[in-house]
Specification:
mainly alpha; two-stranded antiparallel sheet; binds fe (ii) ion; 2 strands
Length: 201
């Protein structure tokens, strides 16, 4: 036990002082003195890099792939009464709107970027899955991993049930777009669902 604790301490020291040297003196670092702290920290890292990231990332194209839905900049001030812009706003609002929001080239660049960010590769490995089933022969972690996978499946079923609950206006509103971002798995492509096991950016 003693040896494991000092291994944990030296790994944590290296992570803090070498890996994140610019932050090594911050007061918020966990002390990492026991298993509970290790579990807590790993859980936080796994949550951020998997489910939290998936929930904010993979809806980008569905939400913002149509630029008028989510403009990235305004190129003009709000027109003031008595100006020619204001007259145009009254006579041809669509044209003034298009001249105000992101220009065409920047729009194309933006859409291309979020299309890439929102896309799963065909060989994506999702949370609760492995591409190396022989990762361990140890029974306890294998069983824990299987249970974890089952819990993720239950979460998907709960999300589906809520999507059908007409009382939940945020899911069953005028825009018929069910919430799917925390479905654990997905096909490859732009699907608006699926939690990858890890992220690159
Ligand atoms: Fe990302």
């Amino acid at each position: 036990m003693m040896q494991k604790e000092s291994e944990l301490q030296s790994w944590w020291k290296e992570l803090r002082e070498e890996g994140h040297g610019d932050k090594k003196n911050e007061p918020w670092w966990p002390k990492m003195q026991n298993r509970e702290e290790l579990i807590e920290t790993c859980t936080m890292i796994i949550w951020i890099a998997s489910a939290l990231h998936a929930a904010v990332n993979f809806g980008q194209y569905p939400y913002a792939g149509f630029l008028p839905n989510r403009r990235t900049i305004s190129r003009r001030f709000m027109p003031e009464k008595g100006t020619s812009d204001y007259d145009e706003l009254e006579s041809n609002p669509d044209k003034l709107f298009l001249r105000t929001i992101t220009a065409q080239l920047q729009t194309l660049l933006g859409i291309a970027l979020i299309e890439i960010l929102s896309r799963h590769s065909t060989d994506e490995v999702y949370l609760g899955k492995r591409d190396t089933p022989e990762w361990t022969s140890d029974k306890n972690p294998l069983q824990a991993f299987e249970e974890f996978g089952k819990k993720l499946g239950d979460i998907e079923e709960r999300i589906i049930a809520r999507n059908h609950d007409k009382m939940l206006k945020n899911r069953v509103g005028p825009v018929v777009m069910p919430y799917t971002l925390l479905f654990p798995t997905s096909e490859g492509g732009i699907t608006g669902k699926g939690i990858p096991n890890s992220v690159s950016i």
